[in-house]
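Please describe our next protein:
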Amino acid sequence: MIQAANIPFGLRGAAVFAALAVAGCADVERGFSDRELDRFVAAMIAVECKVGAENAGVVEKATGFSEEKLGKITGYLREKQLVVRTDDLAGIILINEGCP
């Protein structure tokens, strides 16, 4: 087993830098960070996990995100099957353990 103490300091630093760079690229590709995703989910939970035309402004105000960022986040959550579209609400429902 390789131990960190056996790896030269410069190489360890380069590995850490590379890991951080890759993590940052994921945020750039998605268009939002994990922290922003968490803020959106919290805002959805605050409106009982259902967002339609009548309360979308509440989520927008709570997050402070642009419509573009909100679209990217909801698209990502749809891909992960963590939100579903609902016709009767004309919006989305979050699927999360914090939801009723």
Q: What stands out?
A: Residues 33-94 form one domain. The chain has four helices and three strands. The radius of gyration is 19 Å. The beta strands are 50-51, 83-86, 91-94.
